């Protein structure tokens, strides 16, 4: 029977099948080998503590890599931090990684960055791998044709101790994006439009394979943006079949194979495709040419419209649960039905995160900002997704463009994506943010988030209300 | 872990869908490095409102949360189940759960009971009307009872893996470590080009 890419990768990693009888009795789900375990400071301390309490060691410290991202200030501070809790967590991480022998890229080191940004940068994520991290946006890494998903802290402990994870095989979903994106429409707009279409639960229980001409045309940065938000459609993960774009990105990276090994790897990677005729459990088809720049209006990423649109009337939702959710969202957002999205004034702009904090994203935003100024009422932050992205951006002068426009140019970290490291949106005001979640309070108490692309965030910074780049006078 | 074969008690009705992990426990609580002590963070923002259901005196001591679809969407933070557990919940009844969250609950000894929407709706009504109404989540038989709602032996779904571990109180790491030979055998077949961290 023809196999999907997700199933083929899964099968390569199964150590014990669900239903098999092993030393511990009947296996309740597949036991899967983990090729790479990424860790950050927030979801790992209790896992290391658990190991210590049980007298266990890390089975494969050489397949584990850690960094500090969520809690780090992005104003250039170093330890000790004024935030005592954050300071303690970062120190505990340093101690844990030293004790258990895990590679760590701490605050202030050249390899530090948002965990989902540094993995690919180092060449640590390659086609056909299984990758886990105690963070739901691990889905980002599926862009390389890997199975990559987020896990909880108990599972982090399990992976540290065993290098495996017990998990029921997800079902499969194909999201096929035909045609081509129009000029000015980005991978972020596409991924938001997909969620708006299939809903925040549309991918529940599945591994989504994104395919079709519009996906194949995306660079790796755009593919990562698309897979990053698979989780916002409820999916366990998203993935994209590897191709020449993937191989070109990987060639020559620090941890990529070289010489004869590179050739062998390539031979294998080229076989990683969904076989013709393979059946998916669910399918959705999207026409890329119909996608406009997107802005979210509510408090989940599915509550999104085109920038030309307006805040919907909750009464227009047939489903009572959706209607109630829209009513709550509008109350929180302080928006009236029928308000044109372009009429929403913003106080804050955030360009960064694992969704849109890569070099291509900064270039795109800088392209909009060149020769323009941020509106007087707006505070605007550009936060590179990693220290390496920051260095590259500075090498090509992007920092000067952002600064000249009136942006703050920060150090790398999760920053305003998560509102727990000092960077927050003032209560009751609106932000245009390139992050991935517009949940209540996500960017700080009372913050009203609008999810957008880097280009739209930059244009909104200039006009002081939600706007897309095409709105700006040339 | 202690076996969990059934949970019986009063319930808190939280009639909302898509309750995300940022609502269950706000991110600042994740700066802690301990595994317990998260009770005060549970629904912290909603609890600022004295009329929020969890604040009502008649709801104190409840062990079951009845809620809407896609409960626990958002991040993979296990602090969310820890907060529910620390507050005293032992089972969550909902029409559906977010995937990662459903997988996380049993690791803290909590039961994710996914029941038919009409059954959840009946429980929601009955427990809203009568705070003293008793709900039973029978883990062993995977059924729900709530006389006040006219619910009797209604099935709920709970995957076999979680069911097995909850009912037997098993530690998953011990179970897997018993397979160390098979894990080592797989490791010998891994391609040589796979990347490595710089273990210290
Ligand atoms: S940038 Fe945001 S979504 Fe990404 S890992 Fe950090 S907090 Fe999570």
From TrEMBL, chain A:
Per the UniProt entry, the Enzyme Commission number(s) are 4.2.1.33
Which residue stretches belong to region Disordered?
A: 425-448
Entry keyword set: 4Fe-4S, Amino-acid biosynthesis, Branched-chain amino acid biosynthesis, Iron, Iron-sulfur, Leucine biosynthesis, Lyase, Metal-binding
One function term, GO molecular function aspect: 3-isopropylmalate dehydratase activity
Its pathway is: Amino-acid biosynthesis; L-leucine biosynthesis; L-leucine from 3-methyl-2-oxobutanoate: step 2/4
Q: Give the catalysed reaction(s), semicolon-separated.
A: (2R,3S)-3-isopropylmalate = (2S)-2-isopropylmalate
State its role. Catalyzes the isomerization between 2-isopropylmalate and 3-isopropylmalate, via the formation of 2-isopropylmaleate.
From the Swiss-Prot or TrEMBL record, give the protein name.
3-isopropylmalate dehydratase large subunit
Q: Which organism is it from?
A: Actinomadura yumaensis
Q: What is the lineage of its organism?
A: Bacteria, Bacillati, Actinomycetota, Actinomycetes, Streptosporangiales
TrEMBL record, chain B:
InterPro entries reported in the protein's UniProt record: 3-IsopropMal_deHydase_ssu, Aconitase/3IPM_dehydase_swvl, AconitaseA/IPMdHydase_ssu_swvl, IPMI_Swivel, LeuD
For this protein, the Enzyme Commission number is: 4.2.1.33
| Group of enzyme by EC | lyase
Question: Residue ranges of the Aconitase A/isopropylmalate dehydratase small subunit swivel domain?
Answer: 1-115
Keyword Lyase included in the entry's annotation: yes
Q: In which pathway does it act?
A: Amino-acid biosynthesis; L-leucine biosynthesis; L-leucine from 3-methyl-2-oxobutanoate: step 2/4
The record's keywords, sorted A to Z, are: Amino-acid biosynthesis, Branched-chain amino acid biosynthesis, Leucine biosynthesis, Lyase
Q: Name one GO molecular function term.
A: 3-isopropylmalate dehydratase activity
Tell me one Pfam family matched here.
Aconitase_C
Note the SUPFAM superfamilies from the entry. Answer: LeuD/IlvD-like
Quickly give the catalysed reaction.
Answer: (2R,3S)-3-isopropylmalate = (2S)-2-isopropylmalate
Give the signal peptide, or none: none
Q: Which family does it belong to?
A: Belongs to the LeuD family. LeuD type 1 subfamily.
Q: How does it assemble?
A: Heterodimer of LeuC and LeuD.
- Functional summary from the UniProt entry: Catalyzes the isomerization between 2-isopropylmalate and 3-isopropylmalate, via the formation of 2-isopropylmaleate.
Q: Which HAMAP family match?
A: LeuD_type1 (MF_01031)
Q: What is this protein called?
A: 3-isopropylmalate dehydratase small subunit
- Protein's organism: Actinomadura yumaensis
